Amino acid sequence: MDPIVLLVAVVVSYFIGSISFGRLIMRFVKPKEVLDDVELKFDGMEEGIKLSSVGGNTVSMKLGARGGCAVGLLDILKAFIPTLIFRLLYPDQPYFLFAGLAAFIGHNWPIYYRFKGGRGISPFYGGLFAIDPLGAVVVAVTSLVLGTFIMKDMLVAYTGGVVLIIFWFLGTKFSDPMFVYYMGYAISINILFIVAMLPEIRQIIALRKKYGKGDVGTSMEAFPMGQHMLKLMKKFGLEKKAKQPSQSAPDEVSEE
Q: pTM of the prediction?
């Protein structure tokens, strides 16, 4: 690898990833609103979960599902575009993997905002779509099915793809000359994601100790994008399977 090209891939992708579309859209649409006081509220619970990150879910609490989806899409693109460019320019070199990782880091720890960003789900999938489109679809669908219908845990549904990418690369990239780089990317993403999610993970553990494990429906109803997902599931006759009557602690607080 050329160290100059590698440096350019990392620096450019990091600075692009550091762009906070959530903050920019909020500043344009509702300049007086802030994203530092967002809290997920759940029925039957005295306290909620304070979101210390800025991403699609946070914005959706202020602007609704459309605003949150717009931010999520832009966060996907800011990782997808630089990763794809370096993959097309240097298909036989792992620069694109470093670009995807750097964009993910920039989103979670943006230099423009005192390193306070999101949790990385959207840029993770954005980079992965450029790295391995089929893998992105497979791990996303698998984690959604596992979390929603089998394990009934929205934390798994929303974030499971991050873990599953390790197994996907093990099964599909083992004979690839860049296998070591693929695995390094996947493992690094997992470590960084866990570090970024620690504030929310601590709150989930505390709430589950107090209220017990929550159900999928209760978790999804807590934020606008989840409510729209429930409507779609109901339309296709899946809502009863996904939602169980409960007032337990939530399973999902992941941030894009």
A: 0.81
